[in-house]
Amino acid sequence: MNILKLTRFVIYILFKINCYAKLQKMDKKLVTREEDYSKWYNELIVKAGLAENSAVRGCMIIKPYGYAIWEKMQSQLDKMFKESGHENAYFPLFVPKSLFEAEEKNAEGFAKECAIVTHYRLQNDPENKGKLRVDPNAKLEEELIIRPTSEAIIWSTYKNWIQSYRDLPILINQWANVVRWEMRTRLFLRTAEFLWQEGHTAHETKNEAIEETIMINNLYADFAENFMSMPVIKGVKSKNETFAGADKTYCIEALMQDGKALQAGTSHFLAQNFAKAFDVKFADRDGKLNYVWATSWGVSSRLMGALVMTHSDDRGLVLPPKLAPHQVIFVPIYKNEEQLKSISEVVKDLRYKLNEVGVSSKFDDRETKRPGEKFAQHEIQGVPVRITIGPKDLEKNSLEIFRRDTFEKQFIQINDSVEYVLQLLDQIQDNLFEKALSFRDENITEVDDFDDFKNILENKGGFISAHWDGTDETENKIKELTKATIRCIPEGVKSAGKCIFSGKPSEQRVLFAKAY
């Protein structure tokens, strides 16, 4: 073998080794949930193409596939808000510091998380060519807070909108981004900047405001259970966990697969706190001036994290059909252009029929990927239904249908496939909810002793139903000793007992858990 042939051979071997290494890297499986739940979650978010960390510490880039899921959430929630009488508006990102300080409890509650704008211009740095520095002559007269929440800017606006009871109620929602300067971040669950919706309503009476608060909390629960297939527990927060500036916070709490709780949505009865802070009064039906009654409520892109952790497995995402970007994926199996053409004609007709009945689908006819690679991608991205069709299937007038939640496969006649898929999508949606509900219920444990409380918390996790004496002191001490917090106080469920920590009388059980 001459030198030239030897060189070519070596190059060929190195090329093959490199290709194999790349393939191994691509095919590397996720770390399992049992091995490292946190690492599994982070790997899955990235490998499924949902999001990735950005150049800004603590901020994320939501990629197209992840954003498509968020858009589905946003679209459905927006529809529900509008059906219940709410309208969308938009308010500024920046809040003057004096306005932010007006409601003292709210300002104190968010002070440590605020990002602040102090200057409005940069200039060339004479000491470092090509660099910029803050222009010392461009300092703002008043510092601006980048909104961590919008109550201050909105209620300063409502003051100009409200004079009489005839101007009420005001039912406003906005879709926006907010900044809370978190020190420890995790994609979707806790980031310095995140997406959300925030509702802000103004009412004539206390009862109207309370009804609004409860109605929205029920709406959130409806969305979580019927669209996310995620069971939740409704209730109220303890005083310590109540939103800064609110009299009462209603909540929905969900349980993740690692036994930690996640606050999925909150709805706050603000009473007249913000109306008084911003002097928002109205002339009532008797001509007397009264302060307006208020609510605020919101869910955020952390629901994406909840969706991942509620259903997904060691092989990737598992998405409820109602929120999947593509409910059905078609993968052709072929050897030549003629076969692909025949398959494409059948798929085109099926996609049209599915679209007619409201099912979203995609035809993955990429020539750059082999069928096995496509299967792996769609599996890790949690596409609910995969339909495979090849020349032999065409001969039999059938196709293979695979469901992501149970990995079951069925061969169905093409003429029956649309009706079958419709039923299958409903089955998957229901199955995911029932599976998550069973897990949640199996992980709610009643305890009456603090040693049992600590044992369950460390060795089983989940929600712990226990008596609490209702004091901040006991709540804080339990949190200090165990890192568990009161996640939810179920309303209307009274049962007398003794507090697990202090032994003092207790009116009912509350739910404790470690939480995200």
Q: What is the CA–CA distance across the termini?
A: 64 Å
With helices defined by DSSP (H or I, 4 residues minimum), what is the helix count? 15
Looking at CATH, the homologous superfamily of the largest domain is Bira Bifunctional Protein, Domain 2
Q: Name the CATH class of the largest domain.
A: Alpha Beta
Determine the mean pLDDT. 94
Described by the principal axes of the CA atoms, the overall outline is globular
DSSP summary, beta strand count: 27
How many discrete structural domains? 4
- The class by helix and strand makeup works out as alpha+beta
Q: Beta-sheet strand percentage? A: 25-35%
CATH topology of the largest domain: BirA Bifunctional Protein, domain 2
Q: What does the radius of gyration come to?
A: 28 Å
Describe the 3D structure.
The protein has 516 residues and is of the alpha+beta class. The protein has 4 domains: 1-30; 62-114 and 150-311, 2-Layer Sandwich (BirA Bifunctional Protein, domain 2), CATH 3.30.930.10; 321-437, Rossmann fold (3-Layer(aba) Sandwich); 444-513, Translation Initiation Factor IF3, CATH 3.30.110.30. The protein is built from 15 helices and 27 strands. The strands form 8 sheets. It has a 7-stranded mixed sheet, sandwiched between helices. Residues 19-27 have low confidence and may be disordered.
Give the arrangement of secondary structure elements.
Layout: H1 3-27, H2 37-47, E1 51-53, E2 60-62, H3 64-83, E3 87-88, E4 94-96, H4 97-100, H5 104-110, E5 115-119, E6 122-124, E7 132-134, E8 139-146, H6 151-161, E9 170-179, E10 193-203, H7 206-226, E11 233-236, E12 248-255, E13 261-271, H8 273-277, E14 281-283, E15 289-291, E16 293-300, H9 302-311, E17 328-332, H10 337-356, E18 361-363, H11 371-380, E19 385-389, H12 391-396, E20 398-403, E21 409-413, H13 417-442, E22 444-446, H14 450-459, E23 463-467, H15 472-482, E24 485-488, E25 497-498, E26 505-506, E27 509-513
Parallel strand pairs: 3-9, 17-18, 17-19, 22-23
Antiparallel strand pairs: 1-2, 4-8, 5-8, 6-7, 9-10, 10-16, 11-12, 12-13, 13-16, 14-15, 19-20, 20-21, 23-27, 24-27, 25-26
